[in-house]
Amino acid sequence: MDEHAMTELVTLADLLWLPLFLVGGVLLGLGYFAALQATAALIVGGGAPLVALGLTLARLAALGAGLLLAVQWGALALLATAAGVVLGRMAMLRQGRGGAS
Questions:
Q1: Where are the membrane-spanning stretches (predicted)?
Q2: What value does the mean pLDDT take over residues 88-95?
Q3: Single pTM value for the model
Q4: Contact indicator for 25, 87 with CB cutoff of 8 Å
């Protein structure tokens, strides 16, 4: 890598994509934790074990694919996506508590 490429590791165009990765991470987090909630309800309620296994594999695959996509765009995109997943988790936890802070 030459010195010109090293000094421009983050460009303005890269920064403009970060909100999209954040929103994508929030959606990914909401989906992941909704599937986790459904899996837990299936297990506790004595539901079909194959459905629970399928939900588990699907949510892990979706999270892995989303983070893999983000890492292709660089570290800042990965951080924005991960922050979005955490925000999605917080939203799901708040929903479970009935909106209390």
A1: 15-33, 40-61, 67-87
A2: 92
A3: 0.80
A4: yes
Q: Report the 10 Å Cβ neighbour count for 39.
A: 19
Intra-chain end-to-end CA distance of the chain, in Å = 48
68-88 pLDDT, tens per residue? 999 998 889 999 999 999 999
**SS3 helix, strand, coil % of the chain, rounded to 5?**
85, 0, 15
* Spatial separation of the C-alpha atoms in residues 42 and 58, rounded to whole Å: 15
Q: Report how far residue 56's alpha carbon sits from residue 30's, in angstroms, rounded to the nearest whole number.
A: 14
pLDDT tens digits for range 5-39: 555 567 777 778 899 999 999 999 999 999 999 99
Q: How far apart are CA 26 and CA 22, in angstroms?
A: 6
Q: Rounded to an integer, what distance in angstroms lies between the CA atom of residue 87 and that of residue 21?
A: 12
Tokens 């909106």, located at residue: 99
